[in-house]
Amino acid sequence: EAAVTQSPRNKVTVTGGNVTLSCRQTNSHNYMYWYRQDTGHGLRLIHYSYGAGNLQIGDVPDGYKATRTTQEDFFLLLELASPSQTSLYFCASSAGTGGGRLFFGHGTKLSVL
Amino acid sequence: GQQVQQSPASLVLQEGENAELQCNFSTSLNSMQWFYQRPGGSLVSLFYNPSGTKHSGRLTSTTVIKERRSSLHISSSQTTDSGTYLCALEGDAGAKLTFGGGTRLTVRP
What is the pLDDT of residue B27? Predict the structure, then answer.
């Protein structure tokens, strides 16, 4: 079973603050993803990557940056956090296009006050 | 329009009853996945099913590409099956998955 670890599990920040969410996967998957989950909107893709140094824009990228530093590590950055970014964030990984199940981390609950 | 639609949005069963959850999609399909999520919890992969029928214990997933639908059948439901079931479509455009809105299942003892 693929292991995807997110940190922190919970985060509270103020409007305008900087936040970095971390994700590490240990199964050598090529693809990594950041999703946010909100009531009424379901799961929405923010950014994803197919390898170290690569970044692809998802469906709701505004206000977010991401960086894939290694095969294992994918970070989501909120440089000027806003209350609209209060959400449950999930990181996920998969082996690749058309060939892999998606494995999720436990999520990070972010509150922007 | 929404590419992936799930139905019903919510479902209440008595323990022992069967459930049929539907996922309809409007774009071409590369793969279809089903997930289970407890309230506030992570998502657990149930099936990776691009076509045909797959079984896992009391769960069965069937994807019919020509009809643009996938279903998840839960037999002899248990209270521990309660939670949200999500389907996710990978289209031809690549590795992006589009999620349906989910079906919230409640199984009463």
Answer: 80
**Residue of A102, A103, A108, A109 to mutate, testing the B interface (most B Cβ within 10 Å of its Cβ):** A102
- Taking contacts as CB-CB distances below 8 angstroms, the residues of chain B near A3 are none
**Contact pairs from chain A to chain B, CB under 8 Å:** 57
Higher pLDDT, B24 or A2: B24
Cβ atoms of B72 and B46 closer than 8 Å:
yes
Residue A98 has pLDDT above 70, yes or no: no
Using alpha carbons, list the distances in angstroms from residue A8 to A12, A42, A68, A74, B24. 10, 22, 17, 13, 35
Instruction: Report CB contact under 8 Å: B95, A43.
Output: no
State residue B44 phi and psi, 5-degree precision.
-110, 130
Average model confidence (pLDDT) across chain B: 91
Instruction: Show the tokens assigned to B66.
Output: 């020509």
Shortest CA distance from A6: residue in chain B:
B42
